[in-house]
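Narrative summary of target 7.
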Amino acid sequence: MEHPGSYLAQMRQTAPLVHNITNYVAMNVMANVLLAAGASPAMVHAREEAAEFAGLAQAVSLNIGTVSPPWAEAMEATAQAAAAQEVPWVLDPVAVGATAYRRALGARLLALRPTVIRGNASEILALDGTTAAGKGADATETVATAEEAARALARTSGAVVAVTGPVDFVTDGARAARIANGHALMPRVTALGCSLTGLVAAFVAGQPRFEATVAALAYYGLAGERAGAGAQGPGSFQPAFIDALSAVGPEALDAGARISIA
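Modeled conformation, tokenized:
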């Protein structure tokens, strides 16, 4: 894909308001990630206002990591409101295969037609209905084992599906790409995966969703590479990563993105 930096430039120019219903662990990290990247985050999860707020946003992200019944109701209402007002929304089906409650919620949210689904291999396999092991929010399957399930899920759901791991895989059911950017320390810092979902939402606000998702993943991974180059471990990686998100510009992304057509 040529010029992924153009999608970063457009996102920063518009500074989209991203409405996130995410988990307790991720809220602060995700807000800082979005601010550093150039977007405007909002964390609005109360069922009394979440659906209404979706109409004010340019994109929505929904994450079921620490879900409870009131939050589930807010997510479903928000997804419905976003779809009705043509606001793109991204689903992060955290540990969707772990319990019957999560499987049922995942199915209900999937039926509401997300714009993008971002998860690890185990989550994508579970959401597609393929048996997959899981260890909480951690993947026990490789990205490669989930590629066909991702293609199938994209075709049946109408969503762009992003399977993230050491090499990410993105498909809309017809096209597909792999993104090789990233750093080994990224999975060792909590909530960076969840925060990526919010970033994808920022990129797809007003932009072609397949290309914008690919660009978001390449940008995120490249920032991880920059941060990892000087980090001593997970503790020093996190602030360096926030700095790198701010420092990586469109030209650097064009030069550093490792994207291949699958």
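The first strand starts at residue 17 and ends at 21.
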